[in-house]
Amino acid sequence: MEYIDNTRCISVDELSEIGLSYEALKKLCQRKQVHRIRKGCLNTPALYDLDSLPWRYKVQVYERYPDLQEREESQPFVEEIELDMDALQYYAEYILSDGRHLPLDKQAEYANNASILNSFYKKIAEADGERIKQSQPRLPRADFWRRAAKALPRIGEVWANSLPRKDRSLQRKYNEYNKRGYEALVSAKFTNRNALKVVGEEQERLLLSLIAHPNNLDNTQVAGIYNKVAEEKNNEEDKWETITANTVSQWRKRHKTMVQIGRKGVREHKAKGNMTVKRSRPAAACSIWSMDGWQAELLYQDKPTRGATTYHKRKTVVVVLDPCCNYPVGYAIGDHESPQLIKAALRNAVVHLRWLMGGTLLQVNQLQTDHYALKTMTPLYSAIAKRVVPAEPGNAKAKPVEAYFAYLNKTYCQLQLNWAGSNITSRGGRQPSDEALNQRKKYFPTSQEVVGQIAAIMDEERRRKLDEYKGYLAKMEECNRIELPREQYLMHFGLDNGRTISLEPNGIRPTILGERRDYECFDPDFRSHGGQKWTIKYDPDDLSTALAINEDGSLHYLLEAKELQPMALVDRQPGDEAKLERIRAYNKDLLTSHVEHLEACRETAREVLDQVKIKGFLGAHLIIDSKGQHKNQRSKELAAAPEDAEYEEQYEDIVTSQVKDEGDTALEREKKWLKKL
């Protein structure tokens, strides 16, 4: 380093030693941030004004090339500084116009600036006080600020700051600080003075609507539209200032969430902007099932009877997923999502689980669905699940099955010749080439072939994870093993032949799978509805039971298949006797209950008839006892009531005189009398 006209200068080589490259130095000179004092030539290095260097480099220079005299001159300034705790608190609580706080490094920097300026004030006040005591003029301000500016690099080694390094600039900052206080040290870029051009509620809402417009206008377009409106609205009463693209950029950063909702939509915001919940997988199987439809990314060729062949169609798969290990419990393949396809997938899940559980039908504790046909499907959902929890619409992250579809696409579908790509919103690099698809479309599978292709994928998934899933089934607690009633299963998943059938004396005899079969019901009430027409629902995998449902669905009874009983006693097998005894007990109980009820009815009827004093033939023959006898009962009544004897004799005389024939018995005469009546 050397002095040229009282200016301390530093060479290029010396600057490179502190990490300032020639290219960076050249740019600083072009921006007039660093002053070159002397051009470089042969054996003469270029020199630059040390005081014009950015303060971070200047600090490094003083550290590498210490100057004892300067250090001694700067020491009084450094020793005078004390941290202003009020300033530190002020900047920590400072709120910008957009609701943000100052960055932490800026909070410390501004607090140091205030502390340094406070020490300057104290030093000036002490110097003026001493000079007044000595009857001397006040401290020359120009000389003080010159020394203070020179001391700032040394001060910066202890108190990092951003105060001006020029004496006059430092003095102006000091005066502004004395007038405005801590606010004066906050940079204009944080106060967003450009953004303050948009001051009114009307202006703000117009600007935000343009920024968040779904047409995705850029900053220049937004500023242009806003300024046209500002020119029309600008008057003495309503002042609208024009804005720049930079102002629009500041507002866009400040209202990022609102801009995302406006430009991308609510669904996109929920998928990418919403706060997410981190969940753990279920500890056991059947704790929760997640179900949804998926358009498999596998193309097939469709050859209609008339018209051209198409190659763009895809099948829809409804998958029932157990998230404990992402096991596909059930699935169904169709042309599009429908209640029938959802029902088929759930039936597949229940049947597959029955196979895994050794024949036991189980309910799931919780079923997660979407809102598609929710009102129609709720009875079915409630039958197979203890709790039904529809997922929030548009929130794919809430459904584990959505991520599973992406896994299937990447693991299996992408390896196929007829892969359609990820989805229509994916980036181009994740889509197959259109040219390649056109070249191999003739080799795409047919509709039936792609169904087999998808089924093979799902079966492979089950094969890979079967052992793991059985382990999770074993972890199910007994309280969570909820059996699905056979009647509920047949009600929702049973098949029927589309016909109705009546009850016969030998029971119900429907035609199932092309064969006449015999069923009976051990519910005593079933035979009371002999006039009903019944639809028979059955399980093709288990025909041991069936369900009878009347035409309006108000009655349904569980039927049991009749078993053949050997005629010969020697042909009987263990258990046959118990089955026969069950039938005998049913018949006996049925007869007993009905006879007892009938006798009670007759007893009540006799009491009623006696109360109204019905006499003669009607009273004698209307009510009989449980054994079918009425004459004995009537005789007892006559014996107990002599006043009725005359009436009875007159009745016999009338019958005898009108239908009398020689040789007729009393019973024959009575029959003739009834016929005549």
Topology (elements, then pairings):
Elements: E1 2-4, E2 7-11, H1 12-17, H2 22-30, E3 36-38, E4 47-49, H3 55-64, H4 68-80, H5 85-92, H6 104-133, H7 141-158, H8 167-180, H9 188-191, H10 201-211, H11 219-233, H12 245-254, H13 256-264, H14 266-272, E5 289-302, E6 310-322, E7 327-334, H15 339-356, E8 364-369, H16 374-384, E9 385-390, H17 400-411, H18 434-440, H19 447-474, H20 486-493, E10 500-502, E11 511-512, E12 515-516, E13 519-520, E14 533-539, E15 542-550, E16 556-561, H21 576-612, H22 616-621, H23 631-640, H24 645-659, H25 666-676
Parallel strand pairs: 5-8, 8-9
Antiparallel strand pairs: 1-2, 2-4, 3-4, 5-6, 6-7, 10-14, 11-12, 13-16, 14-15, 15-16
Helix pairs in contact: 3-7, 4-7, 5-6, 7-8, 10-11, 11-12, 13-14, 24-25
How far apart, in Å, are the first and last alpha carbons? 150 Å
Tell me about the biggest sheet?
5 strands, mixed
> How do the strands of the widest beta sheet line up side by side?
7-6-5-8-9
CATH architecture of the domain at 289-480: 2-Layer Sandwich
* Count of individual beta strands: 16
SS strand fraction: 5-15%
Low-confidence stretches: 643-649
What can be said about this structure in brief?
The protein is α+β, with helices and mostly antiparallel strands. It has 25 helices and 16 strands.
What do you see in this structure?
By secondary structure, the protein is α+β, with helices and mostly antiparallel strands. Among the domains are: 1-65, Winged helix-like DNA-binding domain superfamily/Winged helix DNA-binding domain (Arc Repressor Mutant, subunit A), CATH 1.10.10.10; 195-272, no CATH class; 289-480, Nucleotidyltransferase, domain 5 (2-Layer Sandwich); 486-562, no CATH class. The strands form four sheets. A five-stranded mixed sheet has the order 7-6-5-8-9, with helices on both faces. Strands 10-14-15-16-13 form a five-stranded antiparallel sheet, with helices on one face. A four-stranded antiparallel sheet has the order 1-2-4-3. Strand 6 (310-322) and strand 7 form a beta hairpin. 22% of the residues are buried. The model is unreliable at 643-649 (pLDDT under 50).
